[in-house]
Amino acid sequence: MARRGALRPPAEVRRMFDRIAPRYDVMNRLMSLGRDVSWRRAAARAALARRPSVVLDIATGTGDLAFELVAQGASHVVALDFSLEMLRHAARKRLEKQVARITLVCGDAMRLPFRDRSVDACTIGFGLRNLPDYEAAIREFARVLRPGGVLVILETTPFEGPFAPLLRLYFDRVVPWLGGLVSGDRAAYSYLPRSTAAFPRAPELAELLCTAGFADVHFRKLMAGTVALHVAVRGGAEVRADTAAWPVRVPREPMRP
Ligand SMILES: C[S@@+](CC[C@H](N)C(=O)[O-])C[C@H]1O[C@@H](n2cnc3c(N)ncnc32)[C@H](O)[C@@H]1O
């Protein structure tokens, strides 16, 4: 049965991403054979379909999904992560690309520092699998989204079908070896296939989204079924928040809760 949360506790996850931050982007390109760029493109397209004014990119890491959102015309992206090293690389890229429409925020995805119903769209790319409680995380995303707001989840998904043995071989053997070579952290890249295998299958994740009050839940698989893209619309129904309203407002009108 799929796990309800990440294989490792948050502090360990944060340390791991702090460590691999310098080689994170290059490893993504290598192990996905460059395809991760087009997955983020598809995720951004889905998030921007309803022309949101502010998009919150959760677990933004080095910011690739946030940059793609801006490239596709997002007016403002708030990009949040709890790894300072990953954010430092995002900040460097923001400077190099001279992008002003991204606000970087250091924060916890499980306790988003935004008020209820203050965000038009949320994206999370390869982040949900690393959070300690998937259901609670999805409830937290629903809390900050306004009714009718879109949630887009891009995530690796347990391998199924005729290619599964081949994919397992690649992810269990080749990826950790390559990760060790490129980032010097073989353990971080052994965690990737293990956490993917333990993650809910795409229909199970869709079910979690429905349970949290999302409507119009869709998903599609990419790259021989190794990655799933889920899109869901925050329903009008009341979603229970664990936290009282947080003090920081997303810095753009019209964002009143
Ligand atoms: C695999 S990276 C994904 C980065 C980026 N979204 C992408 O598409 O490449 C996962 C990110 O999730 C972040 N993360 C994990 N747990 C988090 C949490 N509880 N709060 C905020 N960020 C978290 C990590 O620091 C890391 O940067």
Would you mind describing this structure in some detail?
The protein has helices at residues 10-20, 24-31, 36-48, 64-71, 84-97, 134-144, 164-183, 186-198, 202-211; strands at residues 54-58, 76-81, 102-106, 119-125, 145-156, 214-222, 227-234. The protein has 257 residues and is an alpha/beta fold. The protein has one domain: Rossmann fold (3-Layer(aba) Sandwich), CATH 3.40.50. The chain has a 7-stranded mixed β-sheet, with helices on both faces. Helix 2 (24-31) runs antiparallel to helix 7, helix 3 (36-48) crosses helix 4 (64-71) and helix 7 (164-183) runs antiparallel to helix 8 (186-198). The chain is globular and about 45 Å long. The structure holds S-adenosylmethionine. S-adenosylmethionine is lined by residues 10, 13-14, 17, 59-61, 64-65, 81-83, 86, 108-110, 125-127, 130-131.
